[in-house]
Input
Amino acid sequence: MSVIYVLLAISIIVAIVFFAAFIFSVKNGQYDDSYTPSVRMLFEDELVKQKKSLQKSNMDTSIESNN
Amino acid sequence: MEKQPCYHCGDDCDSESIQYDEKCFCCNGCKTVYEIFSENDLSYYYDLQTSAGSTPTAIEGKYDFLETERIVEKLTEFNDGNLQIVNLYIPLIHCSSCIWVLENLNKLNPFISSSQVNFSKKTVRISYNSQKTSLKDVVVLLARIGYEPYISLEDIDGKEKKVDRSLIYKLGVAGFVFGNVMFLSFPDYFDLSSSKTSGGEFWLNQYEVVFRWLMFAFSLPVVFYAGADYFVSAYKGLRSKILNIDVPISLGILVLFVRSTLEIMFDWGSGFFDSLTGLVFFLLLGKFFQQKTYSFLSFERDYKSYFPIAVTKINDDGTEESTQVHEIKQGDLLLIRNGELIPVDGLLYKGKAQIDYSFVTGESVPVEREFGDKVFAGGRQMNGPIEVEALKSVSQSYLTQLWSNSVFKTDKSTRFQNITDSIGKRFTIGVLTIAFLATAYWLFFDPSLAMNVFTAVLIIACPCAIALASPFTLGNMLRIFGQKKFYLRDTGAIEQLAQIDTAIFDKTGTITTSKQSTATYQGMPLTKEEESLLKNTLRASNHPLSRTLYDILSDHNIYTLDDYEEHLGKGLEGSKGDRHIKIGSSEFVGREEVSDNLNTAVHVASNNAYKGKYVFHNQYREGVSEVFEQMSEQLQLAILSGDNEGEKRNLEKLLPKLTPLYFNQKPEDKLAFITSLQEQGKKVLMVGDGLNDAGALAQAEVGIAISENINVFSPACDGIMDASKFQQLYQYIIASKKAMKIIKLSFLLSLLYNVVGLYFAVTGQLEPVIAAILMPLSSISVVGFTTLMTNLLGKKLK
Output
């Protein structure tokens, strides 16, 4: 019978968790700039690739120097 | 050869282009930036967007003031002696390449630990190790790669701008509660628990009380937190004896809350918590929508955002020192370098001044000043370094004094009542009348229903849809105007624009372009050889008038002069073979008669015989006379110019007959002129551009600043308009008027819903489910209607 209290409690707790997450993200300033992150996320791959190529060339030179 | 665009900045490469790394560059600056990028593995910059860069400008010594400890302290956001964080405004940020390169600054300077761009605000936040590098290094680095930060006096004086996020929180709370309360109301909607006798769901019957009190608990934060603004505003309105629209709204919220609470307390019914939370949510949504701001534009700039933080002061012993602008005292000797702004009124002490007052007046042709002449704050030195003795402190200078006028201290938005509030009064009275009449009727026939009907009327008449009509229409209009490069400060500006009956224009820079001027020749015709010699002589000079004239003259063969001499402040002399030419002021070329023309003129004498003169005219914007023609049908027009009457005849030809023209207007005169018009009951639109219009722009009902480049600063105003859209100005005014019509139509629409709702309310049959359907339905249809209509309107606009 009283299972409905449990269900209600759970549903409200879940809802409040999401609500808290929202408040937290607003407080963090995530809603202050809604444009730049959308552009920034497109860079990520290229950036990693470049770093890798840089590291690679560094490694290449270091290997050569080791030899 | 086909012209190739510069690999870095995209400008056409002239004949002097530089080939480097198989790429073409227009100048050394661009090439250097490319070199920096390619050496530091940042050439991905060019893959993201081609020709994204901008040419770096020469910056020798410009940022020396950043070595001063106190200035650094004030500019940085965080400073613990080791780590410093600074937020810099970079007007040039415009594309994804910019974001990418600015966020990878640590590749160029390893002591920068992180940098983050806010694209819409055009700022970059840089954290760096202040032990290893300095703010000056960071700023110089940015300038070297073409992203020069803009640092002005405002950055130091400006109080900490706090981001106000309360509306988002409130919207979040209301949305969260609205959703949950809707779910909790479901049993009621489907009548599952209507009564024990009808054999409703036993299970839900059992827990009805729990559901209801949960809804009550949820609604508390909505009423007392999210909706609190409405109560405050209604209270303020009532205290100043104004029935604004927030009065019926707060009345509706309160009645909804009290009645619902009573209902569940005494088990009369399930209450209207869903309508209550929904109402607040929709209202806040409207507010949120209206709050569109152009974060990259500022409508509140005063002279501080034009002025530098520090200038170079020359001490008695001849040493140079950076000093803060505020600390300049009368008698200080200041060094103003080429391209720097003169921060105070002063006397020219040393050097030749060529001062560009375009910030102040919009006039782009520099003025020449010599030793002992007075120079005014706000001018930009264009010709080598000068030394100036300060006559006043910054805040007492001619230009800056304007800001002590009270017009800059009052908040403009409080000076008028918006359309929603103005119908609020009639609406409130109407609703209260209906409520009391209906209650009286029921008291007579069936007193048990009277209270029910009274509250039901107040609930259903709550002007949710009315309160939404204006924010959605105007908010949408604001966006449409924004797409057309007409940026208004807030929705109030559209309402005001729809009401204006007088339009006042500044001349220079507003109806004339500041980029180019034209010149006409008066006098004896020049022979082909003379013209050719003239052009070749001009070619050698860097004086702005020479450059303009050079561009105007038709092409001739370029040859080397035998002799060339530039007499500063007087004119030019050149000779080729036996021909000799003198170009310059009338005294210089040896003309006896006194000049009667007020316009700038350049005189020409060939072989010591006076030939004639080139008279410079303002170049008017395209379509000026059409715009004035159209506007003169509906509006009173006038021109207020700070210049002399030299252009009077030209203007009279261009503008509709009898347009009043006022010349020699000082900034205070312009302000006073607007005030006197307003005292006659006129609603004034002021269109201007320079800082000297700032007072008039602030005083007028609507002040619009015309700007050739919206990223460059314009004075405090209600709207910023891209100069290319000047021809559309009248269309925009008409569109604002139409937008107001749309609002009035949607008021009618929402009143229709109110009438339907009132029928249920007055007859005492208002069920929670009817309220729950009617309220969102009316809101959504009003929002849909206004959005559709404004988009149709926007399509017609150019």
